[in-house]
Amino acid sequence: MKANKFSLVLAITCLSASSQVLGNTIVRNIEELNKAVAIAQPGDKITMASGIWKNVEILFEAHGTKEKPIELIAEKPGEVIISGLSNLSLAGEYLIVTGLVFKNGHTPTGEVISFRKDKKTIANYCSVTQCVIDNFNNPERFEVDLWVALYGKHNKFEFNSLIDKRNVGVTMAIRLDTEGSRENYHRIANNYFGPRENLGSNGGETLRLGTSHYSLSNSNTVVEYNYFDRCNGEHEIISNKSGNNIFRNNVFYECVGTLTMRHGKYTLVENNYFLGNGVLNTGGIRVINEYQTVRHNYLSGLTGFRFRGALVVMNGIYNSPINRYNQVVDSKIDNNLVVNCDYIQLCAGSDAERTAPPVGTSFSNNVFMSNTTKDPFTIYDDISGISFKNNFINSDAILPIKSGFEKVAYATHKNANGLEVPSDKLLKKIGFENVELPVKLDQTGASYYPKVGKTKTFGEGKSIQVVPGTNTILTALESAEAGDILVLKNGGQYVLTKDVPLYKPITIKALAGEKAIIQSSKAGFFKIENGGSLELTNIKFDGAESPDMSGNRVISTSKYSMNKNYKLFIRDCDVVNMNINYSFDFFKIAQHTMADSILVENSTFKNITGNIFSFDKEPEDLGIYNVESMTITNCRFENVQGVVANIYRGGTDESTFGPWVAIKNTQLLNCGKGSRNKLASSFLFHGVQNLQIEGTTLEHSAPITLFLTNGDPISVLKNIQLKDSGKIISNSKAYTQENIIISDN
Ligand code: CA
Question: Does pTM top 0.90 for this prediction?
Answer without folding.
Answer: yes
